[in-house]
Amino acid sequence: MVDVLVIGGGNAALCAALMAREAGASVMLLESAPREWRGGNSQHTRNLRCMHDAPQDVLIDAYPEEEYWQDLLKVTGGITNEPLARLAIRESSTCRDWMRKHGVHFQPPLSGALHVARTNAFFMGGGKALVNAYFRSAQALGVQVRYNAPVDAIELDGDRFVAARIGDERIEARSCVLAAGGFESNREWLREAWGQINGEWVADNFLIRGTRFNMGVLLKYMIDAGADSIGDPSQSHCVAIDARAPQYDGGICTRVDCVSLGVMLNRNAERFYDEGEDFWPKRYAIWGRLVAHQPGQIGYSIIDSKAIGRFMPPVFPGTKANTLGELARAMDLDEAKFIDTIQTYNAACRVGKFDHAVLDDCHTEGLTPAKTHWAQPIDKPPFYAFALRPGITFTYLGLKVNENSAVHFGGKPSPNLYVAGEMMAGNVLGKGYTAGVGMAIGTAFGRIAGTQAAQAALKLKEASHAVA
């Protein structure tokens, strides 16, 4: 019998497996995906949001706990567990040396990156390199890794973990960490969560930025088995991504980062939200949900030539036109309405000193919705448009935990069953998102869960030896 069973193959699962092994436990990790698709959504990540009180290696200036907390409080609208959130924040300040020990490298800060060099540490080679480094370290330490191993049931004795099942196969362990992701790839569950608008299923127009293997099987099983849950099933890390992106695994490269530099229109050629509300790293993840509530779940980011060079070049080039009318026709939008919306916006712009690196004084007056920063007339051809659809990264419905990352049943923590990563992120993320916080949550609670699972398993092993 193995001491600790870890179910999942992403960042949180790997952190748990490594910590459990370092604590002296024997560890088996079950990854539902084949080896070439291992790593869950973590393979698509690129950075970790880190608290620090002074410059540290790849992080400039300071990003203290209180500022981090206020940023999280703002994006979640207060729907967060403060003690657990602060725990993740504090853990983010001390994990990088441990990550380096397991082969993760960080890249030097990039210039002109809109504050992220202060708040976020970027992985050299991105999330795929991080996942590969962790798997190499895990196997070097003796962690047993199995691929194509989708667990579909958990055997419980009350609130105690007994075994996991893969079909007819039964795998016993003294303790277990669940880190198998959310349900973003389960279209039926997304349909149920989002419902219909005008007789059409909202979720049918969603693209999945992350892995196709996160079907929520274990999450649903645990909720049905009586585990305490937390979160709204319709809340998720939901980004407006290029409508031409693939159905699954588009990852970060499908993002279009020019929304704050222009205007965003719906299918009726109408604006529907303040594009300049805040810095893009703090606001990019609200736009998927905003677009999801628009007709046909589609939006159009419109910019002119002044914006070119001010945002990360997208993988797919935008639709280009020399006149606004030509651009409207190319996007199949009502030409007269499109031109009127742009001209009305242009007339409302009060341009001061434009600076995309600060909350500048370029804003609109007498316009609803307002654009509060970076408002410049769209008047310099050629003009560009990007069609955007909601891109789901991961869902926020999860299992309720405490500071030890224990699964709860009727308010009581399990003595040997823990959960980390997307399966519990809803404790911290009730809604909204800010760049790199998902990896902070996964790393913090993955490490905690692995440590706690090892302690529980070794304690049980000692007790059984004493009896013997």
Automatic annotation (TrEMBL):
GO MF, one example: oxidoreductase activity
Highest taxon above the source species: Bacteria
Keyword Oxidoreductase attributed: yes
Domain FAD-dependent oxidoreductase 2 FAD-binding: 3-428
InterPro entries registered for this protein in UniProt: CobZ, FAD-dep_OxRdtase_2_FAD-bd, FAD-oxidoreductase_2, FAD/NAD-bd_sf, Succ_DH/fumarate_Rdtase_cat_sf
Keywords of this entry: FAD, Flavoprotein, Oxidoreductase
PANTHER family named in the record: FAD-DEPENDENT OXIDOREDUCTASE 2 FAD BINDING DOMAIN-CONTAINING PROTEIN, FUMARATE REDUCTASE
Full protein name: TcuA: flavoprotein used to oxidize tricarballylate to cis-aconitate
Origin species: Caballeronia sordidicola
Species lineage: Bacteria, Pseudomonadati, Pseudomonadota, Betaproteobacteria, Burkholderiales
